[in-house]
């Protein structure tokens, strides 16, 4: 199953990927929608072979990947063609 991330919530006053605390998503095949914490999505991608992506208006998909920093908690960021991108930060905020 692949989910499209459609919105994010950042901790108050923060603007970086590391501060995304909650994500909203849609599973395109079934139309199911939901929301989960960053930790839940990280676990789903790493341990349950989950796939997540963002999509622009033209329908181009960008993979959501887990970043493991040397210090601190794992977080999510988009990765396209070998380059880390800011697609998650461009999504609507909740």
Description:
With 94 residues, the chain is mainly β. The protein has one domain (2-90). 11% of the residues lie in helices and 47% in strands. It contains one helix and seven strands, in the order βββαββββ. The protein has a seven-stranded mixed beta sheet with strand order 3-2-1-4-5-6-7, covered by helices on one side. A hairpin with a 2-residue loop joins strand 6 (75-80) and strand 7. The radius of gyration is 12 Å and the shape is globular. It holds the Pfam family DUF3892. InterPro entries: DUF3892.
Summary of the model, kept short:
The protein is mostly beta strands and 94 residues long. The chain has one helix at residues 38-47, and strands spanning 2-10, 20-27, 32-37, 51-55, 61-67, 75-80, 83-85.
Task: Describe the SSE topology.
Blueprint: E1 2-10, E2 20-27, E3 32-37, H1 38-47, E4 51-55, E5 61-67, E6 75-80, E7 83-85
Parallel strand pairs: 1-4
Antiparallel strand pairs: 1-2, 2-3, 4-5, 5-6, 6-7
Record field, number of beta strands: 7
Q: How are the strands of the largest sheet arranged?
A: 3-2-1-4-5-6-7
Question: Which class do the helix and strand fractions yield?
Answer: mainly beta
Overall 3D geometry?
Answer: globular
Question: What's the number of helices?
Answer: 1
- Weakly predicted, low-confidence segments: none
Strand content: over 45%
Number of domains: 1
Q: Indicate the percent of residues in helices.
A: 10-25%
Pfam families: DUF3892
Protein name: DUF3892 domain-containing protein
Keywords:
94 residues; mainly beta; seven-stranded mixed β-sheet; 11% helix; globular
């Amino acid at each position: 199953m692949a989910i499209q991330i459609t919105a994010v919530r950042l901790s108050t006053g923060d603007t970086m990927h590391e501060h995304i605390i909650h994500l909203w998503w849609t599973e395109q095949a079934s139309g199911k929608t939901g929301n989960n914490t960053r930790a839940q999505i990280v676990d789903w991608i790493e341990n349950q072979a989950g796939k997540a992506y963002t999509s622009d208006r033209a329908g181009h998909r960008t993979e959501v990947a887990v970043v493991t920093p040397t210090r601190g908690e794992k977080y999510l960021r988009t990765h396209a063609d070998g380059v880390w991108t800011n697609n998650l930060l461009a999504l609507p905020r909740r």
